[in-house]
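Lay summary

Proteins are chains of building blocks that fold into shapes. Our project writes down both the chain and a compact code for its shape. Here are two examples, one after the other.
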Amino acid sequence: MTSTLCRLIDIAPPPQTLSAAAEWAPVEAALHRELPPDYKELVDSYGSGAFCGLLVATDVRKRYDIVEFNDGRSDFAAEIWEEEEDEKPHEFSADNGYELIAWAKTIDSDTLNWLAHADQKPEAWRTLLVSQDLAEAWEHHDAPAATVLLGLLTGEITSDIVTPDLSTVTFQPYTT
């Protein structure tokens, strides 16, 4: 278990029992890539649910399922950013081969994403926070998913896009 996950468990304990175990092989096959180990460890420890309004994208409820939610998402983002030349992450310039994969979402429909590239190992993917309106705002974070999540929940990372309610840091599991 990583030190990041240990810290997260200390501030927001996972449920005693998980509603459904994650089956990673079909998820990774559908996304055509392996997912970062810290994210899989996070979901394996907590299951599907929300941290202070940040919805972890692997869920038994289809509207937050990571595969379904990401179907066509990167192409849509690239189209929006093509029109907004000055307002896009540089990774999407001249089709540099990056894909945007959302791994969590807020109640306001802002997303926490990986900037995934086929030439990079998943643990090297950067995190991109993106506002509901893709062209409106985005923020880079050079850290893995669990580290960014922990930073947002402890206040060590501040964001103008993702602002969880830190009055009580908890994890609320989804039920089937």
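And here is the second example, written the same way.
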Amino acid sequence: MRVSKSELERTSKFLSYVLRHCPEDIGVFLDPDGWASISELINKAKPQIVLSEALIKKVVETSGKQRFKISDDEQKIRANQGHSVEVDLKLIQSEPPPELFHGTATRFLNSINQEGLKPGQRHHVHLSTDIDIATSVGQRYGKPVILKIDAENMFKQGYSFYLSDNQVWLTDHVPPEFLWFYNRGDF
């Protein structure tokens, strides 16, 4: 199936919106674990967007960020993380690597310096093992800044970490004492 890059991006954004934030906007039902029926999603997405099983699979297969997962029986789809709606992804607590990274914009630094990293509308704070990914995330919001998280000491002090299916590290909150502020050139 040949699909343009712009169509893949548009479909991915639509799926993110529906599966992570507002399934009710098109009348799709997410089960308690965040799964939606692919056939229901295709039918209810019209007329906003035309979806097919092949297009949905192509988005899942080609997404560099691996935002979505299709069930083993290929009948359902869900977002791997980033939800603002209540779902249980059955995340298992895991020991994180010693350091993790978070990309943000300079305009958020005063708040982060005082309160640490908070999930905002989402369920968790998203962290990465990769500085380039953190930089890319930070660039979406303005001039990027990379925050280095002392995950090892957080974990030792009882903070929980989870690894999503697409290898994004999640935690409920990162207090300021576990953060170091770096500019990209400091690495």
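What can we say about the second shape? The chain has a mean pLDDT of 88.
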